[in-house]
Amino acid sequence: MLKTLLVIGSGSFIGGVARFLISRHIQSNLISSFPLGTLMVNILGCFIIGLIYGLTDRSNILNPELKMFLTVGFCGGFTTFSTFTSENISMLKEGDYLYVALYAGLSLFLGLMATYAGNLIPKAL
To answer: Could you say which residues of the chain have pLDDT below 70?
Structure first.
């Protein structure tokens, strides 16, 4: 059990650092207050987890520990629901109702589509 926790924890650490750096880079190049950095990271994370599950459904290309490292660890640390909800609350407080609707809608729709697309790619190969 300790080994599993270390595998997940190390993946989560790497995913969290990657999320921070990528999201910050995207957001720092925007004029708008729209949280595009978090949106892009979450959509990318959805695509990655879909790709991983698509690969493992097709074959045993990943051992269980690597799968746990990538899905629960890396993708769990990389994507962030708490930041998503916090950003929505901030926009609600500022009265940016259109941004809230756009952000929530795009996150859900694009997240589902990215996961689905990631899952299809290994099956098509």
So the answer is: none
